[in-house]
Each structure stands twice: as structure tokens, then as C-alpha cells.
Amino acid sequence: xxxxxxxxxxxxxxxxxxxxxxxxxxxxxxxxxxxxxxxxxxxxxxxxxxxxxxxxxxxxxxxxxxxxxxxxxxxxxxxxxxxxxxxxxxxxxxxxxxxxxxxxxxxxxxxxxxxxxxxxxxxxxxxxxxxxxxxxxxxxxxxxxxxxxxxxxxxxxxxxxxxxxxxxxxxxxxxxxxxxxxxxxxxxxxxxxxxxxxxxxxxxxxxxxxxxxxxxxxxxxxxxxxxxxxxxxxxxxxxxxxxxxxxxxxxxxxxxxxxxxxxxxxxxxxxxxxxxxxxxxxxxxxxxxxxxxxxxxx
Length: 298
Ligand SMILES: Cc1cc2nc3c(=O)[nH]c(=O)nc-3n(C[C@H](O)[C@H](O)[C@H](O)COP(=O)(O)OP(=O)(O)OC[C@H]3O[C@@H](n4cnc5c(N)ncnc54)[C@H](O)[C@@H]3O)c2cc1C
Fold this sequence. Notes:
alpha+beta; Uridine Diphospho-n-acetylenolpyruvylglucosamine Reductase, domain 2; Uridine Diphospho-n-acetylenolpyruvylglucosamine Reductase, domain 3; Uridine Diphospho-n-acetylenolpyruvylglucosamine Reductase, domain 1; four-stranded mixed beta sheet; 8 helices
């Protein structure tokens, strides 16, 4: 049955995609998660802003998702409102900067930069998140991170005031930023440099190949399950603890890359939580290092 808020949203914003009882497993790369009461897909940063204002009038606090590539959604779903940003994906060239809306796929933004002969964003090619999710997580790979390229980010704060953060105010640290659950990132500008377009594109292809060779991309996952500890690499520690292939229900420590936990089919959020905790415990017993989760549990 259509609820009042969904009906009101359809009336107030006729262009907005409103889905009810939408399975979150279809919006997370782990393919786990029960239904969201309402799942909304605004088509631009402008529509996202309008939507946030409307929800606020209803006293409704939405959960924001990009591509769901770093999250674990509950089996019972979410009895509330989820906004998925990936249709707000405009990308524009501004001199040597690339400006993009929060839902733009990071790989697409990176490819766009390459097509324009701009260098600096090659590291991001192949990270399966959106720009918004990448800023929240300060996503990084192969020696680069969002911190290196972000000139500014525009966002709505908890009071829905439009803000722009730049420099130190972005609060970037390893897999961390200033952005908390109350903030909604709308768009950002990435500052790049003029380079050799062919070399940029070749580097992107090389990094994509490295990922294919080392990561279990053929299985659903949320990337590295744990952050890199000061003492070394999580994957090496998990491997040394003899956990490659360790399985709980449908969840398994990847044989190909011990830092990834994959969904071998039918994994539940409970399987995932248990395997994450078991791995943490076993690595701690073996090495004395307490791994910190990178995957966010919703
Ligand atoms: C195969 C694979 C490989 C990966 N490789 C890497 C890698 O090399 N490096 C790396 O850093 N990560 C990697 N990841 C993890 C993931 O892709 C990144 O963390 C990515 O930046 C998450 O983006 P997302 O859009 O999917 O965010 P989501 O998972 O949708 O969300 C992550 C967090 O950001 C919040 N959020 C998302 N968008 C917004 C917004 N617009 N405003 C406010 N909050 C928002 C969400 O509420 C959530 O808390 C990998 C994942 C997979 C599956």
C-alpha cells in the first residue's frame, strides 16, 4: 500500500523516481539487504536539494547511498527513507578542474578526465563508488586518494544550509573525512593537471588490469573489509591467520584476496557480521592487531 509520504513526494516532485519496498540488495555491491520502505532516486543535485527540504518538512531523515559499494545493509531492510544518488551524475570540465555531481561514478569521472588529457585521477579508475561516497570515505588506491585532488565540495549540513568545504576543512585522513551522516554532499570540484591523454588512459587500463588480477571482481563484495592497520596489510594478516576460504553461511574470505569478503550466494547481513567479527578475533589472537572495519554497517 502506498504510504502518505510516498504519495506526497510523487505529487510535489512529479519527475522523482519513488520506489516502495525496494530491496536494498539491488543497490549494494554485496547484494545483501532487505527492503527500504521508500527509495528515492533524484536525477540531479538540484532535485536532491529540493527533496531534502521536502523530507525535512515531513520530519523524515533520509539515509544517503551512492553505489552502495562500502556498506552492509540489514536483512530486515530499512523502515524509512533511502536516497540513492547515482542518477545525479552530471560531469563538467572547468579549465583544469573536473566538476561533478555526487552520484557520478568515480570511474566515469576518471575516464572523463583522461579524455580531456587531464592527469591526477587515474588512481580512482576502477573504484566502484560514486563521487559522494568517495569523498565521505576519502577513497584511495595505488598511491592516490581523494584528498590529493579535491579542491572543494558543496554539501548540505544537518540544518540543510548549503556549505562549501575546501582545504583542511574537508577533514581528510586515511579513509576518513569531515562528512558525517547528517551531511549530504551535492557536488565537488577535482583539481587536476594537464598531461598526456594517451598516457593517462594507458595508466587507467593498467590499474584496471591489476584489479582484475588481484581482486575477486567476479563475486559480490564491498572491497576491502578492513582498514590498513599501522602494522602492515590486513590481507596479509588474514592470510597468515589461515583464514582464506573461511566461510560463514554464504559469506567467505576470498581465496584470491584475503582482504575481501565475498558473497558466494545467499549471504545474509548476519553471515557478514559474524565473519567480520570472527576474522577480527582470529587475527587479534594471532598477531595482537585489532583490525578496524572499513565496511559501514547500516
Ligand atoms: C570491488 C571493490 C573494490 C573497491 N576498491 C576500493 C579501493 O581501491 N579504494 C577504496 O577506497 N575503496 C574501494 N572500494 C570501496 C568503495 O568503492 C569506496 O569506499 C567508495 O568510495 C564508496 O562509494 P559509494 O558511492 O559506493 O558509497 P556508499 O557505499 O553508497 O556509501 C558509503 C558512505 O558514504 C555515505 N554517502 C554516500 N554518498 C553520499 C553523499 N552524496 N552525501 C553524503 N554521504 C554519502 C553513505 O551514507 C555511507 O556512509 C571498493 C569496493 C569494491 C566493491
